[in-house]
Every structure is written in structure tokens, then in C-alpha cells.
């Protein structure tokens, strides 16, 4: 029962990111299924480290592409537009045509699982 609850809560929590297009459906499912294998108190550590690794990977990717400032400006404009209009829209909809523009969560999730196996949390 705990497995099902962890999967359901994690999947529902990340569904919003899928809904606006910030995460893929496979990433949401992967995080949900992996969260199911952790005990209740370890799920938050697993998600924290997975998202921390994803943030580091994304920052490195933006640094190498030299578009960190553009992305931060777009994020600010996106948040302001959602607050002003009161409705969600697709995030970075124009980049969907460019392969490799996002971060796949398989690597960060794997790194987080390795930290768990190594006894970090």
C-alpha cells in the first residue's frame, strides 16, 4: 500500500509540470515509480536530490549554451503572464521543435538512487 501511495502522490505532484510542458510524461512516470520503492521519509530525500542534480545539469547546459540570462528572463515573463492572466500556458512552446532542448530526468534520478545506495540518505 505504501508503494502505491508514494507513486500516486509523486505522480500527482509532478503532473502540473507535465501539464505546462516543463517535464515529459516519461520523466513524471519514472520519478513516480522510483519514489514507490522508497520508504515514506526517504521519498522527499530522493526527490530533493533528483531535482538538485537536474538543476545542476540544467545550469551547466545553459552555461555551455550561453543562454542562462535569456532563460531566466523567459521564466520571469512566464510567471508574470500566468499571474496576470490567471491561466496556465505551455512553457517554452516554441522550443518543442528543437531536440535536446530539455533535461531528461533519467540521469538525475539515477544519481539520486546511487546516493541512496551509497548511504548518503
Structural features, described:
The protein has about 120 residues and is mainly α. About 70% of the residues lie in helices and about 0% in strands. It contains 5 helices and no strands. The chain has helices at about 1-20, 25-35, 40-65, 70-85, 105-115. The longest helix has 26 residues, at about 40-65. It is globular, with a radius of gyration of 16 Å. The two termini are about 25 Å apart. The model has no long low-confidence stretch (mean pLDDT about 85).
Condensed summary:
By secondary structure, the protein is mostly helical. Helices cover 72% and strands 0% of the residues.
Number of helices: 5
Structural class: mainly alpha
End-to-end distance, in Å?
A: 23 Å
Order of helices and strands: HHHHH
Quick one: overall form? globular
| Proportion in helices | over 70%
Major pleated sheet: none
Integer average pLDDT: 85
- Our Rg estimate from Cα atoms comes to 16 Å
The number of strands is 0
Low-confidence stretches: none
**Percent of sequence in beta strands:** under 5%
Question: Main attributes?
Answer:
121 residues, globular, single chain, 0% strand, mainly alpha
Layout of helices and strands, plus pairs?
Layout lengths: L1 H19 L4 H12 L3 H26 L2 H18 L20 H12 L4
Helix pairs in contact: 1-2, 3-5
Amino acid at each position: 500500500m505504501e508503494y502505491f501511495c508514494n507513486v500516486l502522490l509523486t505522480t500527482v505532484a509532478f503532473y502540473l509540470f507535465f501539464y505546462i510542458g516543463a517535464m515529459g510524461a516519461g520523466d513524471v512516470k519514472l520519478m513516480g515509480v522510483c519514489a514507490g520503492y522508497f520508504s515514506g521519509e526517504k521519498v522527499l530525500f530522493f526527490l530533493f536530490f533528483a531535482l538538485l542534480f537536474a538543476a545542476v545539469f540544467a545550469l551547466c547546459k545553459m552555461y555551455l549554451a550561453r543562454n542562462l540570462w535569456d532563460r531566466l528572463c523567459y521564466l520571469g515573463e512566464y510567471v508574470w503572464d500566468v499571474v496576470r492572466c490567471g491561466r496556465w500556458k505551455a512553457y517554452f512552446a516554441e522550443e518543442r521543435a528543437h531536440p535536446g532542448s530539455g533535461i531528461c530526468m533519467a540521469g538525475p534520478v539515477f544519481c539520486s538512487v546511487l546516493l541512496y545506495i551509497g548511504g548518503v540518505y
